[in-house]
Amino acid sequence: MFDAKIPAGPLNSKWEDYKGHCKLVNPANKRNLEVIIIGTGLAGASAAASLGELGYKVKAFCFQDSPRRAHSIAAQGGINAAKNYQNDGDSVFRLFYDTVKGGDYRAREANVHRLAEVSGNIIDQCVAQGVPFAREYGGLLSNRSFGGTQVQRTFYAAGQTGQQLLLGAYSALERQVALGNVKMYNRHEMLDIVKIDGKARGIIARDLITGELERHFGHAVLICSGGYGNVFFLSTNAMGSNVTAAWKATKNGAYFANPCFTQIHPTCIPVSGDHQSKLTLMSESLRNDGRIWVPKKQNDTRKASDIPEEERDYYLERRYPAFGNLVPRDVASRAAKERCDAGYGVGTSKQAVYLDFAAAIERYGNIEVGKRQMTNVSKEDIIKLGKEVVAEKYGNLFDMYAKITGENPYELPMRIYPAVHYTMGGLWVDYELGTTVPGLYSLGEANFSDHGANRLGASALMQGLADGYFVIPYTVGNYLADEIRTKAIPTDHPAFVEAENKVKETINKFMTIKGSKSVDFFHKKLGKIMWDKCGMARNEKGLKEAIEEIKALRAEFWKEVRVPGSADEFNPELEKAGRVADFLELGELMCIDALNRRESCGGHFREESQTDEGEAQRDDVNFSYVAAWEYKGDGQYELHKEPLEFVECKPTQRSYK
Amino acid sequence: MNLTLKVWRQKNKNDQGRFETLQAKNISSEMSFLEMFDVVNEGLINEGKEPIAFDHDCREGICGMCSMHINGRAHGPWDGTTTCQLHMRAFKDGDTITVEPWRAGAFPVIKDLTVDRSAFDRIIEAGGYISVNTGNAQDANCIPVDKTKADLAFAAAACIGCGACVAACKNSSAMLFVSAKVSQLALLPQGHPEKQSRALNMVAQMDKEGFGSCTNTGACEAECPKEISLTNIARLNREFIGAGLSSEK
Amino acid sequence: MKWSQFFNTSIGKKLLVGATGLFLCSFVIVHLAGNFQLLYNDEGKAFNVYAAFMGHNSLIQFIAWGLKIVIVLHAFIALQLTFRNRAARPVKYAVNPGNQTSSWFSRQMAIMGSILLIFIIIHLTNFWAKFHYGEMPLHTYPGQEEPLKDLYLVSQETFKQGWLVVLYVIGMIGLSFHLIHGFKSACQTFGLNHKKYNGLLSFIGVWLFGIAIPVGFAIIPVVIYFK
């Protein structure tokens, strides 16, 4: 049951070898095999399109009004690929190595290597679909650099790379819908998995418009529902992003791996007040040109422009001269928190640092002056030219910042602060992306597999599309080849009836509590506990408190929550209630996992485990494993350890100095 | 600040619907428009009433889900902005704000301010893609693309499919949406093999969905949160004429 | 796509509206050039000769009938589209943006077009119907053998009636407002939108078709009235 199924042989031939030997399904049989896909982000849409093209009968579900809305769309910066178009020494191995190192040696080598291998194909596929990546004047693709790497391997489409990639996958998906290979269920939410004889055989979904519960059969079920960052209430995730699908899988026997591995993104717009409903990311690409600093004096209340150069502390450049402002996200986030906690923060809340483009504007201005062979140029003109260049590179991000804060980032430095952004943890999957439940797969951010304890920038898009376009078409076939004799199971099977009754019961419970507090009240409270005690820095005492507080909050939720309206209509509050109920369970598991992992690694920083310089201190002897948790009833989890073996990348203390 | 809201309430698609007047109290100018709605909804829930249903998701101006017609403007008074990015700085204490759903026969109301935009998906199904199966692609740099055209294609591809163009158009025309996709794919060499059938089929589907026709008023361009240009509509017209005059089928 | 399908799509219909519209634009130039002869101080000789030529040349007559068909076609398809467009929004907004998002002219095409259509019908009864089917005074100019139908005299008499002058001026305001948007819009429908040419097209649309031509037409009855 608990076997990672990593093919034997040398690392760089494992995937080739797998593809050469996995079982195939002939076209006539594919027509009779049904696959259910939950979520239509990069992973789900690309999987649905690819499996539809192969001839499987696919049913895809999303809770939004269209598959094009999935939150992959909000990814800004770019997508990595080992194309080495820049001739700067990139290779599959280097992308693999950077990713494993960036993940602080908590990812599975074989999966990451496969990811690096197919990364180039993703770019080819997307360009063929008409994704308008940024190009150079010669008509070839442009690249930029991203955190945690020293080569330029990031492909991008201004600050809207995720949007363009998702629309590419979406259009491929809609093409299959038009061809009749995929049936799309918009505004539907999966509320349970149906298991028959130990295998995943379908789902119960709620039509969010009519409130009707539906039973859907599938020979396999793919969970591509994204991450669970919204457990913190405030995050860069969309309002609807949730863990429900993955959590129902967990409750049906799929293991949940490394739940405590959360990525806190260093450059987000700071919280402005209690009303805040979500946080907005400012792309990591800004760190290519922006310099991060705080005043050298504590509690400095001067305006940024009044603080002279020598009184500014460019703390990332000071602490990490080799990578400077482009250190990985976990390192940059912690450094910002350290400065703010020490009293150097800026802005009214003091929970922010500056991201300053003045130097870049001047540098670009001078380059333009040189390019255009201008003479006698005034300082103002240089600045003006520089601003034009910066506007071309980051215009949409600057506009977004201005709209939200009301400040002009071309004149004043941006104020930024870390925020929850991505979750590396997720459903445990083997090399084939299969969970511990046969027939149940998990792709993209919803699984745990590729990013270890910290994800490098521009790698999420890569993983989502790798899983959907290039991995699952092979691996699910390997499973379905043995299912060709299984006829579609009628949905009046007792397992479907039982699952539907369970869902109905839960919904009835929500509707009948009629308590005194809104769903958001509980969600905000949970978020606060998680952020304070299971956020950027964690310790034993805090985690133990958090577990108790979450238990108490959960009990209160089931007594006091108020869900207005009825269950047989469009009812967003009811949807939220279901999601928050699952977060209230997951949050506890995250704390349990964080408490168990008494080491610091990647985004998981245990205050008890740090070097003298305050850097994260890994403990490879005791914690070089994937923590896969099995659900054993309310608040009860059993830990299974998948040991991590490193053949090609020998774990070292990560250093970006 | 304190505001008066006149909000469209409609139980479901068969309900007649009506305006309801609500008070929004203690609203901070730092809030986004949707956060103001969160506050109002929290109040309604606490009073035992039904909160206002509205579509929203990413709240950073990219998913295209939010869709409110605010004081006569699709996505409110700021240019190039989605409802979720509109902040309360745009309003003054004591203002009355009228909020309506997108109005178009092709976008039926589901509840309150939520509408059904699946017509857009069906238009994309009619041809808003390049027919390339996974795994068939040549090396990405084998297809050089003129940077000017690539940039134009990107500008068109920035469409978020929110439907503000339809909402803003006095004819409920979806031409800006359709033209953005047709333009993006017509400008890129990858899109050329199917450009005729794409233009013809997408326009036919657009008509079938019951959107109006374009009278070139430019309201769509003015309200588009991604500032998609009217030149795309001209390009769609060219593509459509070219295809109509010369297609073999 | 078959022709019948092509011209039944929304864009196909707009193309017909645009093409007929541009044809009518070219017509108004010719018509105005001819009408200016009403202001010559030659007792209407040039104008009446011109009218006689236009009235009897078979090619011109063929075009003239074509013109009427074009007007009907233009109005018919445009109204059909207008009704369809109105039906595309069964529930109207309580608050409309007014001029914040589009120009007033662009939203009044159907109204202005309808005013124009009514004007054209009146205009045709006043002159064209009279010329071809009614009682016309005759005038023989020195050096000519045949008498000419004196359309010049008819126009002089017609425009002595103040209310008709006002009606004509209103008609021309309608024409102006219709063409300020109409010319540019037709170009856009044919896909003509390019930053190198947009300035020129706007100039032609506003100054030539929107102002010069309607003013030119309107001046004639006014001058005659005050003569």
Automatic annotation (TrEMBL), chain A:
InterPro entries: FAD-dep_OxRdtase_2_FAD-bd, FAD/NAD-bd_sf, Fum_R/Succ_DH_flav-like_C_sf, Fum_Rdtase/Succ_DH_flav-like_C, SdhA/FrdA/AprA, Succ_DH/Fum_Rdt_flav_su, Succ_DH/fumarate_Rdtase_cat_sf
One protein family per Pfam: Succ_DH_flav_C
Residue intervals of the FAD-dependent oxidoreductase 2 FAD-binding domain: 35-461
Cofactor(s) needed for function: FAD
Domain Fumarate reductase/succinate dehydrogenase flavoprotein-like C-terminal: 523-656
Sorted UniProt keywords: Flavoprotein, Oxidoreductase
NCBIfam families: PRK07573.1, sdhA_Bsu
Protein name as catalogued: Fumarate reductase/succinate dehydrogenase flavoprotein subunit
Species, as recorded: Chitinophaga hostae
Automatic annotation (TrEMBL), chain C:
Statement: the UniProt record of this protein carries the keyword Transmembrane: yes
Organism: Chitinophaga hostae
InterPro entries registered for this protein in UniProt: Cytochrome_b-558, SQR/QFR_C/D
Transmembrane segments: 15-39, 59-79, 109-129, 162-180, 200-226
Keywords: Membrane, Transmembrane, Transmembrane helix
Protein name: Succinate dehydrogenase cytochrome b subunit
UniProt keyword Iron-sulfur, yes or no: no
